[in-house]
């Protein structure tokens, strides 16, 4: 069972992102605050859950959290400030949109930047350890997936409905065949590895 809090007396927010390793689309982050004694055995790292379970838990999280928020940072900004900074910015934007101000922040991973003088703790694989981080991972993943499915309607040749912008062989081959869109991250290695350009 995942832990509810690191510092139980405090209002603690968990934050996580989705889409960091994608070739296309935004990086999406979420922040979640649960009541202190909240428990839900079905909440876990989004990568360990099937799509239907994630969607069901998204609804539960939105209903049962004290506060939650989701934020997007798009591919142009990712190219400008790099994916690490964009991921941190998305997490901080989601925190800024919470209706309740946290007293402590639990961050998935090992990198973060100070945010509004609120103490934070980085936790590697935190989405497998803390409920609020796992819930944030579920919201970030489901909101991003839905967004990529909408973009699929505009650019079906990349099959974003299935790959969500991740670097599958099919996605890379489609980039080679059709070129890139405004949703692709130009600072990423977009083409198949076997392709070399003679310049």
């Amino acid at each position: 069972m995942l832990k509810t809090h690191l510092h139980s007396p405090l209002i603690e927010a968990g934050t996580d992102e989705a889409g960091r390793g994608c070739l296309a689309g935004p990086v999406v982050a979420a922040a979640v605050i649960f009541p202190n004694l909240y428990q839900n055995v079905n909440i876990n790292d989004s990568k360990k859950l099937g799509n239907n379970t994630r969607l069901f838990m998204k609804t539960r999280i939105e209903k049962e959290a004290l506060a939650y928020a989701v934020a997007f940072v798009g591919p142009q900004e990712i190219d400008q400030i790099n994916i690490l900074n964009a991921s941190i910015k998305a997490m901080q934007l989601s925190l800024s949109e919470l209706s309740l101000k946290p007293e402590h922040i639990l961050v998935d991973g090992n990198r973060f930047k100070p945010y509004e003088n609120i103490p934070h703790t980085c936790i590697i694989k935190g989405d497998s350890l803390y409920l609020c981080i796992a819930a944030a991972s579920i919201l970030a993943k489901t909101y991003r997936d839905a967004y990529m499915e909408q973009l699929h309607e505009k650019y079906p040749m990349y099959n974003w409905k299935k790959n969500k912008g991740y670097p599958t062989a099919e996605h890379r081959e489609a980039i080679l065949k059709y070129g890139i869109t405004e949703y692709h991250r130009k600072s990423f290695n977009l083409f198949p590895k076997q392709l070399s350009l003679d310049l």
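Residues 131-154 form the longest helix (24 residues). The chain has a mean pLDDT of 93.
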